[in-house]
């Protein structure tokens, strides 16, 4: 049994380690290159305002990849400038026809080190390591499985300025930067890592160093993680008259069909071209579809059951339909091309108060248009669904419709995933999603990945004009979806709006295209991109060292579980032996059990504090939760934006007088103009008021000129308000401390919420809690209540694991209780953690601590 337990712990630690590797793919620092002017190019300085002195036998290592589809690949990758006068450079030189384009320069000469990375590998991550060997007086460069050396005078007293990309340092100036990205920079000495910059930020100019907190500085950074989280606007243009959109995923081209011109936009290069042609009709429900094998764009006149073709080579349409059939419409129908029978299929749609369940087919070979009879009733008449092509047919998910197709008979949102089989014209129901908190419909297309049984689609609520598109990742086999990436602003009126999703396989990006036709007959087209794989929606700028600390914490918890289990195993064994030998009991030597040691090493907060009501309450410590007077949790009623708005107002109301409209715009709608921000604020404040009405004693106000949330604390319990009262500076009692511990045992303050504006609040809370605990500890003699002081020290360690006062307090209290080995273990664990965090030894020994 014990061996199985140890195996389980080992597998747990291994799986946790493996999880971090999977997550840590989409990050790094991208470098702006020749596509921008000189003063807009990217630089990374590992030691802003100073130099680094790594000592003898040091190595600098980093991951490098080039950015594809750029015009000019030339420039400095890395520069090490020793004692302000000796440079060692790694650069990329494509100025001649030589195959060895990566070169190392020492001083003003090329060294003997030159190599190349060819083909697609150049655009994938490559690990480069440059080693300064003092013993052999040479530099050694490792690139993949290749090693190169060059004689070089190495001194252990040399201090270096280390720069990536553009450099403006003393006499070493350069603006020649190759289009590249860099991540996981490390400096090691004698094989031990001394500095580490993951470069996994999402914003700002500072790059955190995770060992010694020697943060680096960037200029004009392009953070890769942000490109996997935030949609980037690529192109926005306006067309006179209606427009329709299609795309070529293989080349990453978006085609916008206007009445007299074709607009072509290439994602990789950012080039927009316009080609005029003879006037082409676009009616209410036209859709267009690009088909790669024929190199043509098909304009589908669904009502008229006709198709015109645009040859991209000649730029001419083969026909034009000028008389629309006005009887029915097929707005927001779904379409796809089936290579198995060279046909275009059209599913569903809406028009004239009816949702359509039609399955229509256009055969490109014969030019025949057919209405196919449905062989089942699984496909509910609908529109605003999403369709993705797959082997043998297509997947269709969601939409809005009704069983009968009539708008007046119980229309509703649909959340079923179906597979349409082209061969036998049948549907198969895969599953139905659980009804979400807020209903949504889908943009026209989804991206299907059959290899890992996933899909990506854009969702949005149909009952709002000023709304947002949100990318989701779903499964093709089980009913689960996850929001990924940031939202995209979208204006929706079903007769004037259209949104679509493509995947550019060439640049590995999702592409969202939105269009809206205004009252003047002009269509605005916006193109956005998001790099794959997309990160979860809730990802925010965070402490770059957090993942390492979380990993260490998880491993520590696993070890503690193991220690506790071993202790329990031993106690159980002793009890069994005692039971077998009741008549002649063995003499027992009392000792401090290891399980107690495990319990004392870390204070894990309880999930259920003793004094917190489950009705009419708002909890901010641990998970953010709100319960109404019936005890129902209403947190799920909040969208991500409403949740953030509520927290902004609540915290500024409890901690400060409130928040101004200007500050609110700066925090939540900084990317909008004043009028748009006002509209967004008004709409979301109204939604928030509607949700808070369920609490009866909680309301949004602006009576003081500031936005506030006014709460009647007699009827609604807010743990944060109670916390503020406890740490307000009044005289502390043991009961006060116990109440504070009950609050903080739920977890850290808003532990699952990560907003940039929230960081100062979290920092204030941590500092106040530690200060309050220490203030009380200073008022109590160790001899008066040593057991409580041990718990108090554990409370402090939860917020500050290397608080010296807490360690001293705990050691003295344990010693007073006669638990000297636990006191020693507490000191040793503290010293190890101190050394790990600060990279230096704790200078006090155990006797000094006990007598301080």
TrEMBL record:
Domain of life, source organism: Bacteria
Chain ranges passing through the membrane: 550-572
InterPro entries: AfsR-DnrI-RedD_regulator, Gal_Oxase/kelch_b-propeller, Kelch-typ_b-propeller, WH-like_DNA-bd_sf
Record's keyword terms, sorted: Membrane, Transmembrane, Transmembrane helix
SUPFAM superfamilies found in the cross-reference section: Galactose oxidase, central domain
PANTHER family: TRANSCRIPTIONAL REGULATOR REDD, TRANSCRIPTIONAL REGULATOR REDD-RELATED
Protein name: Galactose oxidase
Lineage of the organism: Bacteria, Pseudomonadati, Bacteroidota, Cytophagia, Cytophagales
